[in-house]
Amino acid sequence: MLKPNILKLLNEQIALEDYSANLYLAMSSWCGHQKLSGSAKFLEAHSDDEHAHMRKLFTYVNETGAMARIGALAEPSCEFSSIKDVFEKTFEHEKFITAKINALVEACLAEKDYSTFNFLQWYVAEQHEEEHLFRSILDMMDIVGLDGRGLYLVDKEIGKMSQKVV
Ligand code: OFO
């Protein structure tokens, strides 16, 4: 049985993963509008991954006998100054999500909720992967550059990374 504070944090995380899915979909839309089809495809696939992260939490909470809640979501921004701006924001967002997962893990330890602690280890590993993924995209932009041909190549490479990771 989940303690009330753990249930509250898990339900907040459900909303955050759902928000992440919408944020990446909004970013995909912006990229598509800029004719950056590789980035649009990648971010759309990543939005699906975030939705899967949300569903995984949803299932876990309901399996414990508690009730998963679907909270209201803020509208994500769809205004970006450049492709670099988009991916800097994805990286910042993932660092924010990592901090939220870490806070959940710490709360589980404080409450001696080892089952939820164990469940959350998947998210701990996932956040490592996601921060690495977005950092590597930013590194590629710095190395290749984003002028003319560079932008074309970077977008194409990002498109190749769009296979599902979940
Ligand atoms: Fe992008 O990560 Fe979910 O959890």
List strands and helices in order, with pairings.
Elements: H1 4-33, H2 37-63, H3 83-110, H4 114-144, H5 149-160
Helix pairs in contact: 1-2, 1-3, 2-5, 3-4, 4-5
Mean pLDDT: 96
> What count of helical segments does DSSP give?
5
Tell the overall outline.
Answer: elongated
Structural class: mainly alpha
Strand content: under 5%
Query: What's the count of strands?
Result: 0
Radius of gyration: 17 Å
User: Any idea what the CATH architecture is?
Assistant: Up-down Bundle
The CATH class name reads Mainly Alpha
Secondary-structure element pattern, one letter each: HHHHH
CATH topology: Ferritin
The small-molecule ligands in this entry are: hydroxy diiron-OXO moiety
Task: Let me know the largest β-sheet.
Answer: none
Supply the CATH superfamily name: Ferritin, core subunit, four-helix bundle
- The unreliable regions are none
Distance between the termini: 27 Å
Number of domains: 1
> Helix share of residues?
over 70%
List keywords for this structure.
166 residues, elongated, 77% helix, mainly alpha, Ferritin
